[in-house]
Task: inverse folding
DNA sequence: CTCCTATGCGTGCATGTACACGCATATACC
DNA sequence: GGTATATGCGTGTACATGCACGCATAGGAG
């Protein structure tokens, strides 16, 4: 009732911040901002953002991989990852790794990166706990399921957009 | 099991993209990106992003308001809104509005803005429908509740961060 | 060997997001 | 009037995100 609803302007009182928006997208974006802040705050002492922690942890699990491969694992746009990696390389947490295919750029965790992950992990766990305390185990599970359902939604045409004439 | 888990590297097979990440934050961020794309695609024909549509709709409900007031309604950082408004002003969809207090900058929907909203609304509804078809009415409701719970979480200290010495 | 296609990579551009600052004005207190 | 506090605003800085491009090389078709 708060963000994208236009319908019944007949609302008389309207409590300020009680209801979620009628728009699932706005709801999700808001929730994403809020939860990101929780994790970022928790990881702040370790000098990482949650996005960076996510990259590092995946890298620690993957070993030496190409940028594209890492992007696939993170389910993140490759070009976004390219830029996210830059900060981590600048900070000395990620370093280049040899690669068979000259087209590929291999990357891997540096010692400093490994250390950063080790330092950050307990903070991350704390954040996880805080979220679970807030949502309950059920809520966390539901959230995972909803997220999964939404991730699989890519590529749909909704309105009669123009595209799709090639093949 | 996919993004931020480090524990049992003992995993033998691991289906590629079946499980949500162990990290609620990563899940939520991914879901947010995915759903944003759905709405942005739907609104593309109307020349708007969902973030812009959200601003315009709220503005259409609010009439002439100050930037800060609009930010409060959107539950969005004021400085973020300042910049988001710039694009809409450049596009002629938002215009200045008189204000009693000289400190305030009043903004309101222009005619073009109203037209854009009118053109975009059906697309937005389509996107809503698509999401509901994907999540079910229950899923949409759950999502709203979870989002609401997360929004209320601001300001917590998780790890023994340094701050909080002032008062 | 040569040409075509697939794959990997990085950048330009646009936008979203938020924090730290600094500037201006409104208000209250004296 | 003069000072202190509160409120509103915009910018600098930094990062996240994704699309459109263009460049380079690998691999196969001839």
Result:
């Amino acid at each position: 009732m708060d963000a994208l609803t236009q319908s019944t302007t007949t609302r008389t009182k309207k409590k300020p911040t009680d209801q979620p928006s009628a728009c699932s997208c706005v709801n999700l974006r808001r929730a994403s901002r809020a939860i990101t802040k929780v994790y970022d705050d928790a990881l702040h002492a370790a000098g990482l953002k949650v996005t960076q922690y996510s990259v590092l942890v995946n890298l620690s699990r993957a070993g030496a991989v190409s940028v594209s491969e890492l992007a696939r694992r993170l389910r993140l746009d490759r070009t976004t990852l390219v830029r996210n990696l830059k900060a981590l390389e600048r900070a000395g947490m990620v370093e280049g790794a040899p690669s068979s295919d000259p087209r590929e750029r291999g990357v891997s965790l540096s010692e400093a990166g490994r250390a950063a992950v080790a330092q950050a992990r307990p903070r991350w766990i704390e954040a996880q706990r805080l979220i679970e305390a807030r949502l309950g185990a059920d809520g966390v599970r539901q959230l995972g399921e909803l997220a999964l359902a939404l991730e699989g939604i890519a590529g749909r045409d909704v309105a009669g957009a123009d595209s799709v004439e090639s093949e």
Remarks:
- Residues 49, 51-52, 76-80, 83-84, 87, 101-103 of chain A lie near DNA strand D (CB under 10 Å from a C1').
